[in-house]
Amino acid sequence: MESYADTSVQVTWGKNTSSEPSDAIHTVDQNGGDINAGQGGDYVWLSPKWQSNESNAVSNVRIIIQANADSSYKDLAHGAGGDYRYLRLERDGDKKITEIRLLRRKDSVDFGTVQSLGFDAYSTDINKGRGGDFLYLVWKLS
């Protein structure tokens, strides 16, 4: 039975690497999954919750970057200053997420790069506007 991304992706903040959840998303090349790597601030990890019920599973992930805090989301740039960065999970697509990873690169990527790595879709750059590495969520769809 295939597992699908559930209705949540938990955002965890920590002061050191020992706070990393055992189910945190890692990068495609298996490097650490700290969203804030190289940005200062707290360590930030993402942990998807998996289920077998496709009807309410996640089909797309949007990165929201804005100047104002939104208490209904957890900031992916916690403690780093600058704009707030949030995940918005969408469930209205026909195909559902079955695997999700981070992709960290020195240069921006395009759909061809994502496909060559075996993934079907990707987010906008999580680090947009704050310098450093380009950082994307990439995922496979059912």
Describe the structure.
It is a single chain. The chain has 142 residues and is mainly β. It has a single domain (4-141), classed as Vitelline Membrane Outer Layer Protein I, subunit A, CATH 2.100.10. It is built from 1 helix and 7 strands. It has one helix spanning 111-116; strands at 4-14, 43-51, 60-66, 84-90, 97-105, 121-122, 134-141. The strands form 3 sheets. A 3-stranded antiparallel β-sheet has the order 5-7-6. It has a two-stranded antiparallel sheet with strand order 1-2. The chain has a two-stranded antiparallel ribbon with strand order 3-4. The longest helix is centred in the C-terminal third of the chain and has 6 residues, at 111-116. The mean pLDDT is 92.
Order of strands in the sheet with the most strands? 5-7-6
Q: Distance between termini?
A: 12 Å
CATH class: Mainly Beta
Label the CATH architecture.
Aligned Prism
Radius of gyration: 14 Å
In quaternary terms, these chains amount to: single chain
What is the total domain count?
1
Number of helical segments with 4 or more residues: 1
Tell me the major beta sheet: 3 strands, antiparallel
Order of helices and strands: EEEEEHEE
Low-confidence stretches: none
Percent range of helical residues: under 10%
CATH-defined fold name: Vitelline Membrane Outer Layer Protein I, subunit A
Judged by helices, strands and strand pairing, the structural class is mainly beta
Q: Determine the strand fraction and express it as a percent band.
A: 35-45%
User: So what's the overall shape?
Assistant: globular
- Secondary structure: number of strands: 7
User: What's the rounded overall pLDDT mean?
Assistant: 92
